[in-house]
Amino acid sequence: MNDQIKELFEQAGTDVSGKWMSVDNAEKFALLIVRECMRMCDCADVSYLEHGCDLEASGAAGAKEIIKEWFGVE
Fold this sequence. Notes:
It is a single chain. This protein has helices at residues 3-11, 23-50, 54-71. It is mainly α and 74 residues long. The longest helix has 28 residues, at 23-50. The radius of gyration is 15 Å and the shape is elongated. The two termini are 27 Å apart.
């Protein structure tokens, strides 16, 4: 397990061995993963815009919206 996943486990209040403390922790962990994916789309969007790649930026922004809608996350 990489350090980023371990960090998300800890933020969700879980034991890094993977033992879930509660269903709420599992839901929080999933939400953290979805939000991190959305954040990465934002990073890609900004990077593409800075390099004049409008089509790619639009794709990254679109991917974020699809993730947001699919998982019902704000």
